[in-house]
Amino acid sequence: MDPVTSARLSAGRGLIGNADQGGLRQVTLIEKEIWREVMLAIHGSLKPASRRANLLITGVSLAGSRGRILRVGEARLKIVGENKPCERMDEALPGLQAALYRDWRGGVFAIVLSDAEIKTGDVVLWEDQAKASMALMHESQKRN
User: What is the Cα–Cα distance from 134 to 14, expressed in whole angstroms?
Assistant: First the structure.
């Protein structure tokens, strides 16, 4: 897992150039905040790439998000389910698998709904929040 600053997503396929194309695990995501909490709890110092997820996001809770649409920049991702950690986590750091196992701490997997280029720093929010934000902006503009 080599960190990059941008990537291309293809609807129904996933990340262009990724070994896993199609299926339900087109993109995997973890939360930066959860990763930090887990590292503190088990006294680890691994980089998030050790989790082997495709995207590291911040500011959005993934817990219980099955079926929701997440916007990452212009991309739309439908959360399919919780990504339970495997034994490789304990190979990276003993105790990591158990620390990530509960409460969606291991992240989620998603299908890609729209072709898009994503990059580091893109806004990440739930689609229902994006629609509400756009409606508020539109209403504000009408008043001015």
Answer: 27
